[in-house]
Design brief:
Blueprint lengths: L3 E5 L11 H6 L1 H14 L3 H7 L2 H5 L1 H19 L6 E6 L2 H9 L5 H21 L2 E7 L3 H13 L8 E8 L2 E7 H11 L6 E4 L12 H12 L10 E2 L6 E2 L2 H10 L7 H9 L5 E5 L4 H9 L6 E3 L2 H12 L11
Parallel strand pairs: 1-2, 1-9, 9-10
Antiparallel strand pairs: 3-5, 3-6, 4-5, 7-8
Helix pairs in contact: 2-5, 2-7, 5-6, 5-7, 7-10, 8-9, 10-11
Length: 326
């Protein structure tokens, strides 16, 4: 199959039980989880399969959990006749995309993502921040709202910025706790329909992550990274990343820059992939893509039934009609 675009989900898509059916059905996937347990020094597999949910939700745990799940799905598909032309991941998912594109090994990816999650959690503890989804207000309106608040230059309020430009009428803001709360009270007057606080440990994709971004840069500099096998669309620049040095640069810059998901999907769409696959837990990105590009119908694949259905459909020579149930 030619012209495949891969989508890799980010933090928030995790759930207790993720990947368990894959490990029970495929010895190679159980071995993959055992390898992750050994590399990380704790039982990620047990946490993914049994919880507790609060521990799985923790940034330093959720990120490797999602990466391993996405890679497990890919491991079961990669022998199929798939010609991947481009990939993109949402925040953490950008690392999963680079793992699938062979920018680094599985072991290296685990070390990178565990350190990333730990640094992000520590940064949030050092300078508390928050995030909230603004529903019903377009990106330019959210940007104006944040600019007005930041223009007050009130140290008691702090900073707030657009962090995730997810799709039409869905933008996530990020920043100091007081600034995010202030933005929530003002957003309705700007035309927002709802404001949904996010359960996160820090102000991700904002300047509040500056300190950890420098440390993460050092982690990447010490890691073996090579040119990806296919281009990955950067969250921060919306440009295809095809060289190792740009892998390092863009993975650092996305920590303090907004996730420009809408533009990234539009850029991928212009390449005219014939099939879009979301690999890993959940189907959030598939829904966002359908909102951004009305004619597209990505296929979310995250469990045994989804893989089986997709491979059967692939064998029948039809991958553009219908969707695989998550």
């Amino acid at each position: 199959m030619s012209g495949v675009a891969l989508l890799l989900p980010g933090q928030g898509s995790q759930y207790v039980g993720m990947g368990h059916d894959l490990a029970n059905s495929y010895p190679s996937i159980r071995e993959l989880y055992e390898q992750a347990d050994e590399e990380l020094g704790f039982s990620l597999s047990r946490l993914c399969w049994e919880g507790p949910e609060n521990d799985l939700r923790a940034t330093e745990n959720a990120q490797p959990a999602i990466l391993v799940h996405s890679f497990a799905v890919w491991s079961l598909l990669k022998e199929a006749p798939l010609s991947v032309m481009v990939g993109a991941g949402h925040s953490l998912g950008e690392l999963s995309a680079h793992l699938i594109a062979d920018s680094f090994s599985f072991e290296t990816a685990l070390r990178i993502v565990r350190r990333r999650g730990t640094l992000m959690a520590a940064s949030g503890a050092k300078r508390p921040g928050g995030m909230a989804a603004v529903i019903g207000l377009e990106a330019d309106g959210v940007e104006e709202l944040c600019s007005e608040i930041n223009g007050l230059q009130d140290p008691k309020i702090g900073l707030v910025v657009p962090a995730n430009l997810n799709g039409p009428g869905q933008v996530v803001i990020s920043g100091d706790v007081t600034a995010v709360e202030f933005a929530k009270t003002e957003a309705e007057a700007w035309g927002a329909k709802r404001i949904i606080p996010l359960n996160v440990s820090g102000a991700f994709h904002s300047p509040l992550m500056d300190d950890m971004a420098q440390e993460f840069s050092e982690v990447l500099a010490a890691s073996e990274i090579v040119d990806p096998q296919f281009p990955i669309i950067s969250n921060a620049t919306v440009e295809p990343v095809a060289e190792a040095n740009n892998v390092r640069r863009t993975l650092v810059s996305q920590l303090t820059s907004p996730v420009r998901w809408t533009e990234g999907v539009e850029k991928m769409s212009r390449l005219e992939p014939t099939t879009w696959l979301e690999l890993g837990p959940g189907n959030t990105l598939s829904g966002l893509v359908r909102r951004i590009e009305k004619g597209l119908r990505p296929i979310p694949i995250g469990n045994f039934d989804g893989i089986k259905s997709f491979l059967e459909t692939l064998s029948a020579g039809n991958t553009t009609e219908g969707e695989v149930d998550e």
